[in-house]
Amino acid sequence: MPLTRRAFPDIAPAAWEHPSDAAALRAMRALPGFDRLVGATLGRFNEKVMGLRLVEGSQPVNAESAPRLHKLYEAVLTCLDAPDPIPLYLKSMGAINAITAGVDAPFIVLSTEAETNLDDAQLKVILGHELGHILSGHVRYKMMMGMLFSLGWTSALLPATLPLMGAVTLAMLEWDRKSELSADRACALVVGGAGPVVATLQAASGPRPFLWGKAEAFPQSWRQPLGKLVGEAEKLVQRHPTVEARAAALQAWVDSPEWTAIQEGDYKKRQDQPRPGTLDDIRAGADALKAGLAEAMSGMGWKR
């Protein structure tokens, strides 16, 4: 039986990050002015007010209020050796879901539907996934993307604004999809394999209409001719890879020597993390983004 560790002391996020995610994120962080763009976007919103709205009507999770969930969460925090306490809340959302927010003080909100309908392993998957996002530094960029969408994606599709906002947004969406692969790896470490992760993804998956949810914004005469184009565009702007793609990527990692080495205690430590922003990082990130965007756009019939 293969070795499965229950904890990874001092493990660095780099140990589980998918290469495409890590390269793209480091490249974006290193781009001159990119953090100013993030700051300007986040600065338009009051993070404290947003946090209060997200946790409104929720219940803090502790040993008294939710002993089962608290015990599971403590095990997840220990497994990935979270350096700081990260609050967890329970809130009814109408579906199996979890939300992570907070740039300076991150927290997780789990739906009561998830607690009720998922078993212990599946709950650890969801909690490990969200914690993976936090520890990998994804939250501020994901919050920025959510805010951009809240301002209205249709405005970014207008010809006058597409060159300004569209390219940046599409590049971030490509990174966003890759970041899910990293978070999948983090929760696989928590539960000791790919099986529970894939089962949870399947349980939580469902249709998430995006562009067609605003089809009424287009004239009726446009809808049929634009059907294929919009269908492919939805793939381009979706924020999660398909369950099948995530399962295949995760299983390949679990079957790799890298996974075995981590289980044996040979993994990157926090103190060993290199400084971000090297030329190789920028080049690798640019290549990853270019390849991902080219692949997505090819489905729309766009060629260079």
Principal-axis shape equals globular
Order of helices and strands: HHHEHEEEHHHHHHHHHHH
Tell me the number of strands.
Answer: 4
Radius of gyration: 20 Å
Helix content: 55-70%
**Percentage of residues in DSSP E strands:** under 5%
Poorly predicted runs of 5 or more residues: 152-164, 207-237, 299-304
Helix count, DSSP H or I runs of 4 or more residues = 15
Major sheet description: 4 strands, mixed
Q: Roughly how many Å apart are the termini?
A: 50 Å
Number of domains: 1
Mean pLDDT: 74
- Largest sheet, order of strands side by side? 1-2-4-3
- The class by helix and strand makeup works out as mainly alpha
Textual characterization of the structure:
The protein is mainly α and 304 residues long. It has one domain (13-298). Helix content is 58%, strand content 5%. The chain contains 15 helices and 4 strands. A 4-stranded mixed beta sheet has the order 1-2-4-3, sandwiched between helices. The radius of gyration is 20 Å and the shape is globular.
Features:
single chain, 304 residues, mainly alpha, four-stranded mixed beta sheet, 15 helices, 4 strands
Q: What's the arrangement of secondary structure elements?
A:
Blueprint: H1 19-30, H2 34-43, H3 47-55, E1 59-60, H4 67-79, E2 88-91, E3 98-101, E4 107-111, H5 112-117, H6 120-135, H7 139-150, H8 153-156, H9 162-191, H10 195-204, H11 220-223, H12 227-237, H13 243-254, H14 257-263, H15 279-298
Parallel strand pairs: 2-4
Antiparallel strand pairs: 1-2, 3-4
